[in-house]
TrEMBL record:
InterPro entries: BLH_phosphatase-like (IPR005939), FAD/NAD-bd_sf (IPR036188), FAD/NAD-binding_dom (IPR023753), Prot-tyrosine_phosphatase-like (IPR029021), Sulphide_quinone_reductase (IPR015904). It comes from Hydromonas duriensis. Its cofactor is FAD. Residues 9-109 form the Beta-lactamase hydrolase-like protein phosphatase-like domain. Residues 154-271 form the FAD/NAD(P)-binding domain. Signal peptide: none annotated. Keywords: FAD, Flavoprotein, Oxidoreductase, Quinone, Transit peptide. This is Sulfide:quinone oxidoreductase. GO terms for biological process: sulfide oxidation, using sulfide:quinone oxidoreductase. Pfam families: BLH_phosphatase (PF04273), Pyr_redox_2 (PF07992). GO terms for molecular function: FAD binding; hydrolase activity; quinone binding; sulfide:quinone oxidoreductase activity.
Length: 556
C-alpha cells in the first residue's frame, strides 16, 4: 500500500499514521529522517508504538525522531523544539501524526515564527529572540542570581508526573475545567510500576507498563519538562534546573522517592548480570524472569531495606513468585532461599504476618529479620549483610549466591529533604488527614514523598487524590477543607502464580477490605484483579480522573 505524502517543500513532507512496514517505502522515496508527532496509545492498542516504528526506521537506514504532542499542548517553546529538531536532522524529512494535520501545523508555525529557513530548513537561532507562551511568560532574573530565566505562573503547580501528579491533575480538571494546572516532570515516560512484579515472573509484558508522558498528561494540563532544584514557599516560588522560575497559587508536591542504587557498594556495576537483578526497575524486571527460569539449583537471596519504601510487600512478592515457579518445575528441593529484611517484622500489619509466615515455610524460605544488605560483588557471587548479634553488636555476614534480587534503599529527593517544606526526617510535612502543609497553607503533599504514616502504594495514592482535589478546591473557595484521608492502602501480595493476598488497611493497621473476603488469606480472584483489572483501572480510570471506589469519608 502506497502512503499519501503531502510535500510542503522539497525537503519536508507530512503524512498520516505510519507503520513499521512503511519505513522501507519512505526510505525508497528519498527521505532521510522520520519524525513522529503522535503520542503512543493515543488511538488504542492497535496503534503501533514509537519504539516499534523507530526500530523499523533504523533497519531501513532512516534517522528517527520522537517528538509527540497533543494538539492542545502546542506552545511556542514546543514549536522552537520542533524547529531545532528539523534544523539538525538529515533531510529530506517526513513527519507524521494521526492524520498529518498537527505535523503540518507545527511545521507551518515554525516557518511563520521565523524559526526555520524555508529554503534549506536550517534552524534560525537568534539570541535576541524571546519565545513566550500564551501563559503570560516573561524573562525575569532567578531569585538570588543575575542570569535571565523564564517566569511562569499557574493556579495549581504539581511537582511530579507519576501516578499521583497525573491523577490529581485529571481529577482537578474534571471538577474545574478552566483551572490553570501545570505539571513539572523531567521524564519522557510514565510507568505502571505495580506490574513489574508480574514482569519478573513472566506474567506481564514490560512494554505494556510504559507510555510516553505526553500520552498520559491530561489535555488541558500544561507540561513543564524540567527538574526542580529549589522550593521557596515564602514567595510561592519553585526554581527549576532549566533556570525557569515558577510561581503558583497552590502547590502540590508529589515527586515520589529517590531509589539509592549507588548506596550499596558494588551493586550498580553488577545489576542486570551475574544473577543480580531487581523488579524495582523496568529494564531489570525481565532479567529477574530470565534468572528464575535459568536457575536449576543453588542459593537465591531476596532483600528488603528499611521502610518506608515503595510497596513494602514487593520484595516478598519476588520471592514467592520465583519459588512458586521452581516448585512447579520440581526444582524447589534443589534451592536454598533466604529473605533478608532489614526491618524487625515480615510485614507492617500484624494480621497478615501468620499467613505470610506460612507462605515462607511452604517454600522452605529462611527469613532473616534485621539483616541489611551492605555490599555486593557480582563477579564473585558474594553479598554482605549487617545485623545485630545476641550481644547487640553489629556483625558483618558474607553470603554466596546464584541469584540475588535487590530492593534499594529509598529516601526523599534532596530537593525535598533540603527544603523549607520538609520535616525533620526529610518528608514533605502534611496533616495526616487533610494532606495540607501545617506551615504553608497553600501547599499540599501527595504520594510517596509526604510524611503521612501510610503504606506507600498506588492504591493509597488513588484515595489521596480525591481528598486532595476536594480540599484544594475548597481552599481556593475559602471553604473549610471537607475531606479526610484515613490512611487507606492496598498491597496485593502475590504469594504464588494464581494466588494473592489483597492486603487492605489504613492508619494503625486497621483492616479495610473492599470486597468482603478475608483480606489476610490468599484468593485466586485477587490474582486476576492484579493481572487484568488493576492495570485497566490505572490507565483508563485513575489517570483519567474517574474515582470509582476511591472516595474516603468527609470531615464536614
Amino acid at each position: 500500500m502506497t502512503i499519501a505524502i503531502t510535500a510542503h517543500t522539497p525537503l519536508f513532507g507530512t503524512t498520516a499514521q505510519t507503520c513499521p512496514e512503511d519505513m522501507l517505502q519512505i526510505a525508497q522515496a528519498g527521505y532521510k529522517t522520520v519524525i513522529n508527532n503522535r503520542p503512543d496509545f493515543e488511538g488504542g492498542a492497535d496503534q503501533p508504538t514509537s519504539e516499534d516504528i523507530a526500530q523499523a526506521a533504523t533497519a531501513a537506514g532512516l534517522n528517527f525522531i520522537a517528538l509527540p504532542f497533543s494538539p492542545s499542548q502546542v506552545t511556542p517553546s514546543l514549536v522552537e523544539e520542533f524547529a531545532k529538531a528539523v534544523g539538525d536532522a538529515p533531510k529530506p524529512i517526513l513527519a507524521f501524526c494521526r492524520t498529518g494535520t498537527r505535523s503540518t501545523n507545527i511545521f507551518q508555525a515554525a516557518v511563520a515564527m521565523g524559526l526555520l529557513n524555508p529554503n534549506d530548513l536550517s534552524f534560525v537561532s537568534d539570541s535576541n529572540h524571546s519565545v513566550t507562551d500564551d501563559t503570560a511568560e516573561k524573562k525575569t532574573p532567578e531569585l538570588g542570581q543575575g542570569k535571565q530565566n523564564l517566569h511562569r505562573h499557574h493556579d495549581v503547580l504539581i511537582i511530579g508526573g507519576g501516578s499521583g501528579g497525573i491523577a490529581l491533575a485529571a481529577s482537578l480538571l474534571k471538577r474545574q475545567p478552566d483551572l490553570d494546572v501545570a505539571i513539572v516532570e523531567p521524564a519522557e515516560h510514565h510507568f505502571y510500576q505495580p506490574a513489574w512484579t508480574l514482569v519478573g515472573a513472566g506474567e506481564y509484558d514490560v512494554k505494556k507498563t510504559k507510555r510516553q508522558m505526553h500520552a498520559v498528561i491530561p489535555a488541558k494540563a500544561k507540561w513543564i519538562k524540567a527538574a526542580v532544584t529549589r522550593f521557596q514557599p515564602e514567595q510561592n516560588t519553585v526554581i527549576c534546573a532549566t533556570g525557569e522560575v515558577l510561581t503558583y497559587q497552590q502547590l502540590v508536591v508529589a515527586p515520589g522517592l529517590a531509589l539509592l542504587w549507588d548506596s550499596i557498594p558494588g551493586l550498580v556495576e553488577t545489576l542486570g548480570k551475574n544473577g543480580v537483578t531487581s523488579n524495582y526497575r523496568a529494564d531489570l524486571a525481565p532479567y529477574t524472569w530470565e534468572c528464575v527460569q535459568n536457575l536449576q539449583s543453588g542459593v537465591a537471596l531476596f532483600t528488603q531495606p528499611m521502610v518506608p519504601i515503595k510497596c513494602a510487600g514487593a520484595p516478598q512478592k519476588a520471592l514467592y513468585l520465583s519459588a512458586d515457579h521452581w516448585q512447579k518445575n520440581n526444582r524447589l528441593n534443589r534451592m536454598h532461599i533466604e529473605f533478608h529484611n532489614a526491618g524487625g517484622a515480615l510485614f507492617s500489619v500484624a494480621d497478615f504476618i501468620p499467613n505470610l509466615t506460612k507462605q515462607m515455610q511452604a517454600y522452605n524460605a529462611q527469613v532473616n529479620l534485621g539483616s541489611n544488605l551492605v555490599a555486593v560483588d557480582g563477579a564473585a557471587k558474594k553479598a554482605w549483610f549487617e545485623r545485630k548479634n545476641a550481644d547487640g553488636q553489629i556483625e558483618r555476614i558474607e553470603k554466596s549466591f546464584d541469584m540475588l534480587h535487590v530492593v534499594p534503599p529509598q529516601k526523599p529527593h534532596a530537593f525535598v529533604k533540603d527544603s523549607p517544606l520538609s520535616n525533620a526526617d526529610g518528608w514533605v510535612e502534611v496533616d495526616n488527614a487533610t494532606l495540607q502543609h501545617p506551615r504553608f497553607s497553600n501547599v499540599f503533599g501527595l504520594g510517596d514523598a509526604m510524611s503521612a504514616p501510610n503504606s506507600k502504594t498506588t492504591a493509597a495514592i488513588r484515595k489521596q487524590v480525591v481528598v486532595l482535589a476536594e480540599n484544594l478546591l475548597a481552599l481556593r473557595d475559602n471553604r473549610p477543607l471537607p475531606m479526610a484521608y484515613d490512611g487507606y492502602s492496598a498491597c496485593p501480595i502475590t504469594v504464588g502464580n494464581g494466588k494473592l493476598i489483597l492486603a487492605e488497611f489504613g492508619y494503625n493497621g486497621v483492616l479495610m477490605p473492599t470486597f468482603g473476603n478475608d483480606p489476610t488469606t490468599p484468593h485466586a480472584s485477587g490474582w486476576y484483579m492484579k493481572k487484568y483489572l488493576f492495570p485497566r483501572v490505572y490507565w483508563h480510570l485513575m489517570l483519567k480522573g474517574h474515582e470509582i471506589l476511591a472516595r474516603p469519608k468527609r470531615t464536614k
